[in-house]
Amino acid sequence: MRFDLSFPVLLRTSGDAWRPGESKNVCVKGAFVLTDSPFMPRPNAEYVLRLPPELTKANHPLMIRFLGTILRCEQVHEGDSSFGIALQSRDYKYLPKEEAAKFAAMFTTGFADC
Predict the structure, then answer these.
(1) In a domain, 24, yes or no
(2) I want to staple 95 with a disulfide (CB 3.0 to 4.6 A). Which of 39, 56, 100, 107 is the partner?
(3) Does residue 17 belong to any structural domain of this protein?
């Protein structure tokens, strides 16, 4: 079952620079993310979801880092520079405070540090 949930996302493949995106739906096995960068289907993708406190009831955003595969990339609208990325997850971890702080800075600076 997929849930229509929109969260800020950072996405990359094989150690490339992080790119910003936004989830459109998520499920136990993966996510569909919108981004302005095309990605080739390949294994060794990583993405970080930033879950808001309103959802998790934590006193700060929680960040989860997923490892997986990019299954497909499709242009969302003709002539538009946005792409839909289908991701399959194979592993995840909640980021510890120190690592989450690094990603939090990327989310709050408008991805200038990506």
Answers:
(1) yes
(2) 100
(3) yes
pLDDT at 112 over 70: no
Q: 3-state secondary structure string, the chain?
A: CCECCCCEEEEEECCCCCEEEEEEEEECCEEEEEECCCCCCEEEEEEEEEECHHHHCCCCCEEEEEEEEEEEEEECCCCCCCEEEEEEEEEEEECCHHHHHHHHHHHHCCCCCC
pLDDT tens for each residue of 42-66: 999 999 999 888 888 888 889 999 9
Distance CA 19, CA 27 (A): 21
Q: What's the pTM?
A: 0.86
For residue 113, tell me if it sits in a domain. Answer: no
Q: How confident is the model at residue 77 (pLDDT cuts 50, 70, 90)?
A: confident
Q: Is residue 77 part of a domain?
A: yes
The residue segments making up the domain with residue 56 are 8-108
